[in-house]
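Hey team,

Sharing the Pyrroline-5-carboxylate reductase run so nobody has to redo it. Sequence (272 residues) first:
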Amino acid sequence: MTNIAVLGAGKMGEALLSGLLKAGRAPAELMFTERFPTRAEELAKTYGIEHVEVAAAVQRADVLVVAVKPQDIEPLLDEIAPKIPGGKLVVSLCAGLPTKLYERRLPEGTAVVRVMPNTPMLVGEAMSAISGGAHAEAHHLDLVEELLSSVGKVARVPEGQQDAVTALSGSGPAYFYFLVEAMIDAGILLGIPRDKAADLIVQSAVGAAAMLREGGGHPVMLREAVTSPAGTTISGLRELEKHGVRAALIDAIEAARDRSVELGKAHEIDED
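Structure output:
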């Protein structure tokens, strides 16, 4: 039995705990830390999982899943570094934080796996990218992939690509929501009630995503299948190109990548 502790039971931490339970993990294998008593009580009651202090989690769990906000990582590492025994696997869900940050602060030889999930984890449809640190072995990556497969799909990438992954799939849902919001507003402008416009667009998004994933077609081919000569779609696409929507999306993803790099460098400076 592998005991797993989630350090920081926010939305992502809760989603992982819920997914692990749905995948068949016993509540006795799971525990979590949470600094707000009301929140801790709510989660323990909802899922039947034990709420523990950080010191207990570090001692009892085989896998420590760090799910705090990046700005809260320093005090957490200060707390766990003197207490963590050898042989623990540390899994970081913190955006922008490199494995070497943990390796410098934790005992020599600690295995660390860096993960970039995204918020669809909340509905079991996450896209998570994982990368092993200097001491992470194949069996560590296998275990992390097994755990995260309970809440979506998993891809292994070199850690050097994690900042790009953060910008692309980590932040990606926000870009889709932004486009959907704009399309709903367009529907209202054209005289369709908001709730009806939302139904039309959300289902269109669900269907389009299913065709991308299950149909195996390239986005260009799928787009061209909707685009008739001199039709409505090509007129709309012309306006998107005219206003530079494609270039704006690329710029947005590059900016998100740059911010992820900045987050990591800030902690590297603290370490040097």
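The domain at 4-159 is CATH 3.40.50.720 (Rossmann fold).

Ping me if you want the raw files.
A.
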